[in-house]
Amino acid sequence: MIKNIEFFRPKSSGFRCNATQLIFAFVVLFVAFVSHAQTPEQLFETGNSQYAQNNYEEAIKNYEKVLDAGYESAAVYYNLANANYKLNRIAPSIYNYEKALQLKPNDQEIKNNLEFAQNMTVDAITPLPQNIFKKWYRAVLGLFSVDGWAVLTVALLGLFTLSFLFYYFIASTSLKRTLFTVSFLALGLGLLSLTLAFQSQSEKRNRIFAVIFSPEAEIKNAPNLAGESSFVLHEGTKVRVLEQDVNWAMIQLADGKEGWIPVSDIKLL
Fold this sequence. Notes:
Helix content: 55-70%
Shape: globular
Number of helices: 9
CATH architecture of the largest domain: Alpha Horseshoe
CATH class of the largest domain: Mainly Alpha
């Protein structure tokens, strides 16, 4: 006859774990966890040390942990891009240089390294020509990020307020003229900066870009596998996303070509 399995049961006179002991044990475990967990700053510095030792794989892991913790900066994306570039990973390096450039649009070092990474791409795309006024507009709009234009607007309007107050209270006629001119220019430039801030925000919202991560992506003329192939793109190529559903995205190249690509083949910037 098979007997019922009997589990060991401690006697009631044995050790009892009360609430105080449980709280104490929890506190000890929590302190141990916190003491071993690295802050994003420490992870970043660890990544930098590993990068200096040519340990690029581990450096990438630590930089990605910083981003996973919800912290981002141009420096993190830039170093992550550099580590991927050292490993000849085209798409991740270009993607992270682009992310760094979004946060620091005027950083020449990021632009230079991005250009080096783009030289590794297969696709040669000639952008459509732009008129001189559109080039100037793009150049001015790209001087600052949305936050940069917002900060500049606040600073200029603050200068206008101070200049106007001094103008109102100071008795000197010559100084009044100077302060009136300064306040007028600050107000005009502040309003222009505010306009550019809204334009930059609109551009950011309406102009969505992505980087192709697939080694080779077949661009279709319709959002389905049965669609005809229009052209082929390769990893690292930057594209503009015009529309997107769950599985497909309609993209546009700098030369004006358009087509559909599986969402799994791209990573949005």
